[in-house]
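Blackboard transcription, Thursday session:
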Amino acid sequence: MKRFLNILWLGVIVFSLSACQKYLEVQSNYGLAVPNSLDDLQKLLDDSQIMNLKFPSFGEASADNYYLSQSVYDALIDYGQQTYIWQNDHMNFGNDWSSSYSTVYNSNLVLDRIKKINRDESNANQYDAIYASAKFYQASQYLALLWTYSKAYTQESKTDMGIVLRNSSDFHAPSYRSSIAECYEKVITDLKECSGMLPEKTSHVMRPNKYAAYATLARAYLSMQVYDSANYYVDLALKYNADLLDFNNLSEVKMTASYPFTIFNKETLFYAELLVNINLTSSRALTDTLLYRSYESNDLRRSAYFKVAADGTTTFKGSYAGSSKLFSGIATDELYLMRAECNVRMGNVEAGMADLNYLLRYRYKVGTFIPYVIKDKTEALALILKERRKELLYRGLRWIDLKRLNAEGREISIARKLNGQLIALQPNSNAYALPLPEDIIRLTGMQQNPK
Amino acid sequence: MKVLLTALFTSVLFFVSKAQEKIWVQGTIVSANGGKVLVGASIRNKTLHNQAASSLKGKFDIQVGNKEDSLLISCIGYLDRTVAAGFFEKNKVLALSVKETYLEEAIVSTGYQTLKANEVTGAIDVVDNKMLNQQVGTNILDRLNNMTSAIRFDNQPIQNADLQKLNISVRGLSTINGNLDPLIVLDGFIYEGDISNIDPNSIESVSILKDAAASAIWGARAGNGVIVMTSKKGAFSKEQMTKITLSNTIILKENNDLNKIYQPQNADFIALEKYLFEKGYYDSELLYQPYLAQSPVIDLLDRRKRNLISPADSASGIAKFMRQNGRQNYMDAFYNVPFVNQHALNISGGGTRNSYGFGIGYTGNKSELDAFDRKINIQLSNSFRPTDNIQLDLQVLYTNQDSRNGKPEFSSLSYGSMKAPYLQFLKEDGTEIPFEKEYRGSYLKENYAKGYLPWDYYPLSEYKYAKDRRQNNEWFSSLNLKYKVLPYLHLNMGGQIQQQRTENNELNALESYEARKWINEFTIIGTGTTPTKYNIPLGGIKRYSAAEGRSYTMRGQIDFNKSIGRHLLVGILGGEVRENRSNTNSYTAYGYNELPMSSTSVDFVTRFPTLPDDGMRRIPGAPQFFKNVNRFVSLYTNISDRFMDRYGLSMSLRKDGANIFGASTNDRWSPLWSVGGSWDIHKEAFFKLALFDYLKLRATYGTSGNVDLRRSPDPIAYIGSATYTSYPMYQISTLNDPLLKWERVATTNFGLDFSLRRGRLSGRIDYYVKKGKDLYGLSEYDYTAWGLQGTVVKNLAGMRGQGFDIDLNSKNISGKINWDTRMIISLNRNKTTQYYNLQNSITSFLSGGNTITPIVGKPLNALAAYKWMGLNEFGEGQGLLDGQLSTNYTAIRNQADALPEGNESIVYFGSSKPQVFGNVINTLSWKSLIFSFNVSFKGNYYVRRPVTSYFSLFANGTAYPDFDQRWQRPGDEQHTQVPGMKYPINSMSDTFYQYADINVYKGDHLRLEYVSLTWQGKYTVGNRAFNMGLSANAANLGVLWRANKLGIDPEFPYQLSPPKTFSIGLKIDY
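(Written on the board underneath:)
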C-alpha cells in the first residue's frame, strides 16, 4: 500500500512539474498582446487617438483669434476662465501635458523595442518606416509642446527653460527640463534623421511620409526664425504635393454644408488634430470681430470658414477635419504661406508674392481676385503675415506666431474684454510660456515657468 | 409545472406508504431535566423503517414487528436514545437528556473537508439553516446579512465594478487593488456564477472562513475571505426517511416615497432659472446648440425673449409649472404595487445504499415600475454506495432567470442634464405629454419635422415598444467518487462543470422613441429628385449581447483520519486544475422586424452626417467579441493532529499557479501557508470550574500574498481599431513596472470558545492582528513618463489592523417563556504604518476616505476636512491660510498638499469605515410562537453629508436641504454656514464648502433590521408527523437612533433608503 502511495505521489509531482507549466501558458485575455514584432509596433503607431489626435490646444486657447462673450465666460468652468485670461496656473492631471507625453511614451516604446529586432534585407523598409515614424511623431509633439510651454527661440534660449525630453519608455527615469536650445536641437536632429528614412508615400495621411518631415522641419526653423533653412525644407515638402483646394469648386469645398471641408482632403499632407479644448468649442469661441471683417466680400473663406449666428457673431466651421474637431496637421496652404514668408524675409519679394497670389486665387470667387503687386519687403511681409493668420485659423499656429513675431519686435499686444475692462497680455510677457501643470511641478520638483 | 409537481407527490407518497400490520406500542416522551413533555420527538422503528412523532402531550403510538425491534427516539436539542420496543411495556415514560455543549454539534465545512467544530483551529463562522430562515429575501446574501460578525455589508455603492460584484467584505479588505470579492464556494467547488442564481431555500448552511489559517486552503483567491455554502441533500440512513419541505413566501414592499428626496421649491427653482437666464448662463447653448433639450421654463423664457410667444403666454405657462409637484406626479403616473413571491419544494431521503435530494424553487418579482423578473431553480443530488468502500455523489443545479424592463427610473428623467422639480407627465385629461430628454421639441418642430419620424418621447408607454429582456441559464454540476482504500484512508476524485449563458435582447420597435430617434438622426431628407436617404433603415433596432461562461475543476485528493495512540491525525492532500472561460459577443441589427423576421444591413464604417447636431458619426453596433481563459493549478495540504482529544495542532500549505498574462513564470506561482493550535481546557483534569461546560483556546498564524500583473516586465496592449483609419491598433492599457513587489499580509488570530452554566451563556471571541506590507495603492506619479493615466499602482503603504469578532448567545429566561439573545460584534481598527510616496496629494482623501491615508499613524481610510471659519459678510466660506482667515481656496489646497501633516487648515476626524458594528438579535418564544427582532449598530466612524454645490445645481438642478438656509443678504452670516449663491460660479468655493469640517458627522447609529413572528405547529397524520410554520416578517424598518442631530441616515444621506418590506411565509415539513 505504502509503495502504491509513493508511486502515486511521485507521479503527481512529475505530472505537475511538466504539464502544469504548459497548462498555464494559455493566453488569459484574447484581447491583449505584448508588442514585440514589427507589425505589433506599427499597430502602436497606428493608434491615431494617441499618435495623431492629441496635439496641445491650450496655446490656441490663449491666442487672439477668438473671444468669449461675457455670459459664456461667466458660465465657464474655472480653469477655462483662467486659461482665457492667461492665469491657468493650477492645472492638474488630464491636460495638454499628459496627452502630449502619451504620444512621446508610445514613440519611445517603439524606439526601445525596435532595438531588439534585427534589421535585415527582408524587413528593412518596414523597419525604417516604423523607426522613422516614431521619431517623427515624437519630434512633432516636442515641437508643439515647446510652442506651448516655452518662450520663443531667442538669444536667451541656451538658458531659458524648454520642455522635458524623455529618452526612453522607462517610467522610473526622472523628468527634468532641458533648455529651449537643446529641445529645438533634438527636434531638428530627429526630424532630419527620420526624413531620410520615411517612405515617399504611405497608405494613409495619418502615417507620416518624408514630406511631412520636411514640412515639420520648415515649421521648426520658421519658429526659430531661421528662414533659409525653413525655405529649403518647405521647398522640398512642396515637391510632393502642390495641390490646393479650389474654393469655387463645390465638389471640393461644400460651401453650404455645416462643415464645408472634407476630412483627408487633397491639401492634407499629414493629418493631426488639436485636443478638444473647452474654450474653443463651436458653442463658445467667437471669431475676433476685426479678424472676421478683414475677409473681403469676394473672399470665399468668409463663408467657408465662418458660421454667422442670428446676433451677427461668428463661429469657426472651416476645419480640415470636416467636423467640430480642429485640424492641426500639415496642409499645402500652410506650405505656400511659409515659403512666401521665407522668400520675402530673404529678400525674394517677387517669389514670395507669387506664392501668396497663387494661393489666394483659389480662395476668391472666380475672376474677382486681382493679384497683389508689391515690391516693398516690409509691406509684402505684413501682407503675408496677415494672410497667414486669415488662412491658418485654429491650427495651433497662432500662439507661436505671436511669440516669434513679438520676439522680432512686432509689439503685438493682445487683450480680453471682460466686465467692461481690458485685460492685456504684453508682448514677450512671461505668460507666453504657459505654466506647467501644478501636480507635475509638485511631483517632480521641476522649476515652474515664471509668472 | 403542475403536472411535474403532481407526479412528484404521487411518487413520494408511494415511498412512504409501506406500512405493515404488526403490534402497537405506546408511550410518553419527557425531558430528563424537569420532566416536561416533549412535543414532536421522533420515534423511529429501525427494523420496520416506520416512524411516529409525539403529540402535544408527549404521547405516541407506533407499530412494531416484535418486542425486540429497536426504536430510535430523537428530539432537537436532546440526545438520541435507542431502546428495544419492549422498554415501553415496563415503562410508560422515556426521558431524553438535554444536549448541553451545542458548540460541538456544529459541523464545519471548509469546502475541501468537513470537520467537527472541535477539530478546527481557525476562525470560522457557521450560519445554520435556522438562522438563514430568520430573514426573507430572494438572494442568499440577504439571508446572511445581520447574521454573522464576519461579513460587513456595505451600503455604499460599488466603486469599481471590475473588481467587485458583491458589496460585502469578510473582515475588511486585505488588498486595495485587485479583486475585492470574497470567494464563494458551493458544495466544495468555486462558484463563478451569479450569486442571485443560488436559491436560498436550497442552502442548508454557510461557513465563513475568516482568518488566514481557515482560508489558506483556498489559496491566493481567498485573500478576501471565503464563504462556503452547503446545499441540502439527502442522508444515508437505515430508516428510509423521506423528508418533504414546502415553503411559500410573499413579500410586499413599500413604494419609495420620492418626496423624501430633497428638491428646491418650485418658486425657488424657477426664480433661479430666471436669474441664470437673465445672466446669460444659457445663452451660448441656446444660440449654438439650440437643438438640446431645455427645461420647460427655460424654453418658455427663450421663446418669450425671441418674441415667439406673448408675455401672457409665457407667464401662464410658467404659472402652470409652478403648480406641479414632479415627484408626486411621477409616483402617481408610474408606480404600481411591487410584489415578490417565492415558492420552494425540497424532497430528500435515503436508504443504506443511496440517498437523494430534489428541490425546485420559483421566485417571481414584479417591481413598482412593472419590471418583471422570474427565476426557477432545480436541484438534484444523488449519492450511491454500491459497496461499503465506494461512494459516488452526483449533483446538478439548474437555474433559469428571465427579466424584463419596466418604466424608466425617476432619476433618468431629466431635461438634458437638468432635473427640474416640476416634472409633468399627464395632461389634465390623462393623455401623455412628451418628455424632452435629449432634444428640444420646439426646435425640432421648426427644423426637422417634415419627412422625419416623430421625435416625441413618451416615458410612460415607451416600455411597450422598447423591450429589454435578459435571460440567464446556468448549469452547475459535480461528480465525486470516494474510495475507501483503508478504513482511515480515502481517495477522492472529483470534478465540476459549470456553464452559464446570459443573453440580453433589447428590441426597439419602430414605434419606440429609441428607434425613431436613431433613424431620424441618420436621415438625409431628399430634395427635388433625390430621394430621402435612411442611413439607418426604417424598422426596429435590435441590440443583442450574449455572455457565456464555462468553468471546470478536476480534483484528486487523499483524506486520512487515523488514531495512533492518543493522537488523532486528520488531513488532506490534493491537487486540482481549474479553468474558467468566458466569451462575450454583441451586435446591433437595424431595420429589424420580428414577423416576418428580417433585418437590413448597414454601413458601420462610413461616417454619416447626423442631425440635429450637425455632426459626422458612425452607426454604432458593429459586432464585437471578447474571450478570456483563466487557468489555475493548485497543490494543497492540510494536516491536523489532536492529542488526547484536547490539544490540536494544524498546518496548511498551498501553492497556486495561474496563467496571469504577461507575468514571468516565477510570479505565476504563489505559496501560502498557515499554522494553528487549539486547546480544550475544559477537558483538563485540573480544570474544575463547574461554571464552564466548555472552554477552548485557539491560535493561528498565516500569510497571504498578492501579486499584481502590472509587475510584468512587458508592456501589455489591448487590441482595438484606430479612430478614422480603422486600422488594427495596440494601445498600452497598463504601464509596465518591473519594480513592483508582492503585497504581503500576515494574520494572527486568537480565539476563545466557551459555554457557561449548561449553555446559558456561550460564545466565541476572536482577536486578530493583520499586518500588511508593500500594499498596493493608486499613487500619483510623474505622468510625463506615460500620460494616459494620472495614477499608477505602486507599493504604497504598510498597515496594521486589529480587531475582535465576538459572537455571544445567552439564554436569559427558559421555561414556559424562553428569551434568547444573540449578540454579534466586530471591532476593527487599523492604521497606516508606513507610507512610501510622500508626494501624493491629500486632496484624494479629503474627498471621502476611500483611499489610503498618506499619513502614518492615521486610520487607513481616514476622513479629513478643511477647517471652516464661518462665512464672511459677502456670504463666502472662509478657511485658514497662514493663520489668517482666507477665501483663497486654491492657496489653501496647495498648502495642504505641500504640507499635509500638522496643517492648521486641515482637520482629521477618523475612520470613514465603521470601527464597531454588529447586531443584537432577541428571540422570545412561548409555546409555538416565536418572536424575534434584530437591531444592528455601526459606530466609531465619520461620514460626510452631501451639501449643495452651486455648480451642480446650475448644471443639473441637484441641491440638498442646506440650500434653504443659504446666505442671502449681509447679516445672514450670523446664523448660517451655507455660502451664498454667486454667479459667475467659483467652483473652488463649492469644493471648499463641500469638504469643510462642518459637513462631517459621526456616523454612529442603530437600525431596526427586522421583526419576525413565527408560529410552529406539529400535527400527525397517520403515523407521520408534520410541522407547519407560519411566519411574518417586516424588514428595513429604519434608523432607531443616530448620533447626528440632523436626522440624516448616515448610510443613506438624503437618498432613498431600502424600502420597508413585509412578508408572509408558510412552511410545511413533512
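Lecturer's comment: Chain B touches chain A through 80 residues (CB under 8 Å).
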